[in-house]
Amino acid sequence: MALNKQEIAQRIAQELQTGWYVNLGIGIPTLVANYIPKHISVVLQSENGLLGMGPFPFEGEEDADLINAGKQTITTLPGSVFFDSATSFAMIRGGHVQLTVLGAMEVADNGDIANWKIPDRMVKGMGGAMDLVASADNIIVAMQHTNKRGESKLLPACTLPITGVQCVKKIVTDLATLEVTPKEGFRLLERAPGVSVEEIVSKTAGRLTVKGDVPEMQF
Length: 219
Hints:
The chain is built from four helices and 13 strands. It is α/β, with parallel strands linked by helices.
């Protein structure tokens, strides 16, 4: 069965390592804050000017003054700190964020990502996406494997305006966990529980390498 958005975030949370500073992009990535393993200590950075972001608040406990980059209400942890956008992007551009988790509309099998604009649709701007993909050494994408028409979003080349080139390291979709490799394109690491390798192959348009038995994700 395909994963829901919360399960995608839960799987990505398993990638976190103690001591990392982590930026969570808009959409599914923000949900990662709810699933950080108890034995892991990380600091979540929000590009609008916050270190020490916590999980989402319970209903009725929201503070409208505490928001993430996607304007969702959030919580803060002890020791959290607020600052301006210039300081926030100095952290990002200075390479002080060890992991960035982003959503995407398309990812190419060489690691290119398109996640900021669909032609002919109004957008307010690219936000911080281009800074994030240009500055982070480790980028994980959280996304649906196919679009609403059932077409693959994992492609030989992006058709939408590119946000960054050859930057994505790993992808977690509703069907699979994949690594982006220089020579073999997408490498299938795990499949969602109950999802067959054949289904993943049929829904991946870009180069896909499958080696040996592919285990199911564990939660």
